[in-house]
Design a protein that fits this description.
Layout lengths: L4 E2 L2 E2 L3 H7 L4 H8 L4 H9 L6 H10 L19 E4 L5 E4 L20 H10 L3 E3 L5 E3 L2 E2 L2 H14 L15
Antiparallel strand pairs: 1-2, 3-4, 5-6, 6-7
Helix pairs in contact: 5-6
């Protein structure tokens, strides 16, 4: 799937940013100082858009990855997963929903994609989780791309296929 492009910039949904950076909505809410849990939930589902104050804080916290225009796009985040509810209707759920996947989640409650799980497996004890939900690689804060890159270095030395991951190794 190709990323959406608007005015020459890549759109980054807040849910996708949280998922790709292994952050939970609760961690994000606390970091921003948002008083109500439902506020972040409404931003993630597209039911509400952040006001100017919160948008500035979101843009700053995400390092500019999530912009106000990203909330104008009505398409669902890339990280959503369709499920069938009790009545047989399909609905989309976010990674933090208990029904998102059948596999167990990581030690800190975040859910990782299969490529990231493979990278974590390759790196083993080199990766740790802080109580605040940050990933540490060799004792230093790291994002998922750096973790996949480190795992790919090991896999290449072993003569194995690297992990395909956006921004690291082209997807097949």
């Amino acid at each position: 799937m190709q990323p959406l492009v608007a005015l020459g910039t890549l759109l980054m949904k807040l849910a996708d940013w949280l998922f790709e950076n292994s952050k939970s909505p609760e961690f994000f809410r606390r970091k921003l100082g948002v008083p109500e849990r439902s506020t972040v939930s409404r931003w993630l589902t597209g039911k509400r858009k952040p006001n100017r104050h919160w948008m500035r804080a979101i843009t700053q916290l995400t390092g500019g990855a999530v912009q106000s225009g990203d909330f104008d796009d009505s398409s669902p985040p890339r990280c959503v997963r369709p499920i069938l509810d009790a009545s047989g209707d399909e609905r989309l759920i976010l990674p933090w929903h208990p029904g998102y996947q059948d596999e167990p989640s990581s030690a800190d409650g975040d859910v990782f994609s299969p490529p990231v799980k493979r990278a974590l497996n390759v790196l083993g004890k080199r990766v740790k989780f802080t109580p605040g939900g940050t990933l540490l690689l060799d004792g230093r804060p790291s994002d998922l791309r750096r973790i996949v890159q480190a795992a790919n270095e090991i896999l290449r030395r072993r003569g194995q296929e690297p992990i395909h991951y956006p921004g690291v190794e082209p997807l097949l």
